[in-house]
Amino acid sequence: MESGDDMKTIYEIQQILKRYGTFIYTGDRIGDLELMEMEIDELYQMKFINTHDFQMAKLILKREKNSLLAKREE
């Protein structure tokens, strides 16, 4: 992602992870989101991604996970 671009989708998070050699697909969407969150945490701790990208990724992942959980409850 270019500096100044806000990430908006899970796909964009996957592209960041891919850039660092991480490919996540388990067949369980919520499990995938949790693994992505763990990887994003690690990239941030190692200072590979900046605070803004970290916060945006966490927000997007949390929103998607909550949406899926809400659909399961319906």
What integer value in Å does the Rg equal?
A: 12 Å
* Alpha carbon gap, first and last residue: 36 Å
* Contiguous helical run count: 3
**What is the number of independent domains?**
1
Shape: globular
Q: Architecture in CATH?
A: Orthogonal Bundle
Give the SSE string: HHH
Detailed description of the structure:
The chain is mostly helical. The chain has a single domain (10-69), classed as Helix Hairpins (Orthogonal Bundle). The chain is 68% helix and 0% strand. The protein has helices spanning 10-19, 29-45, 51-73. The protein is globular. 12% of the residues are buried.
Features:
single chain; mainly alpha; 68% helix
Write the layout of secondary structure elements.
Elements: H1 10-19, H2 29-45, H3 51-73
Helix pairs in contact: 2-3
In summary, what is this structure?
It contains 3 helices and no strands. It has 74 residues and is an all-alpha fold.
